[in-house]
Amino acid sequence: MNNNNTVKRLVKTAIIAALYAVITLVLAPISYGPIQFRVSEIMVLLAFFDPFYIVGLTLGCFIANILGPNGLADIIFGTLATFISVYAVSITERFVKNKKTSLIIASLWPTIFNGVIIGWMLNYIYQFPLVLSIGEVAIGEFVVVTIVGVPIVRLLQNKYSSFPLFCKN
């Protein structure tokens, strides 16, 4: 890999991380807590198009969680949940061959992993009821990533199919 390509990849990773962190922090009142509508999570669908985005998304989540209100538990478990989610999103296409269906299925992984991991974390930190915490986080994730995110990604993909975000690096 030449230096120019390495610099481009590092810049892309930094931009993705910064966007994720900034969107999360600007919308902090709805990004943290038992019912989360972390709008930045729409970006996890980028990993569906290229696993390269896993690092930037995980780093962005890490930064947002460092600056967020839930402390060390969120830094560790929130970042882990995002990493597992984006990794699962990135490999979905290997197992589901139908393109339209595979994006929808990929969008469900963040709902499952964040629901369970973050729901458990909120139960641990704030003593919220476990099942309720899991359900609230999962519902917020489902709304943001599947109901809002999938149509936005499809719209952008149809309108800007050659846009670099939707192309393999």
UniProtKB/TrEMBL annotation:
<feature type="transmembrane region" description="Helical">
    <location>
        <begin position="12"/>
        <end position="30"/>
    </location>
</feature>
<dbReference type="Pfam" id="PF06177">
    <property type="entry name" value="QueT"/>
</dbReference>
<keyword id="KW-0812">Transmembrane</keyword>
<feature type="transmembrane region" description="Helical">
    <location>
        <begin position="42"/>
        <end position="66"/>
    </location>
</feature>
<keyword id="KW-1133">Transmembrane helix</keyword>
<protein>
    <submittedName>
        <fullName>QueT transporter family protein</fullName>
    </submittedName>
</protein>
<feature type="transmembrane region" description="Helical">
    <location>
        <begin position="72"/>
        <end position="91"/>
    </location>
</feature>
<feature type="transmembrane region" description="Helical">
    <location>
        <begin position="103"/>
        <end position="126"/>
    </location>
</feature>
<keyword id="KW-0472">Membrane</keyword>
<feature type="transmembrane region" description="Helical">
    <location>
        <begin position="138"/>
        <end position="156"/>
    </location>
</feature>
<dbReference type="InterPro" id="IPR010387">
    <property type="entry name" value="QueT"/>
</dbReference>
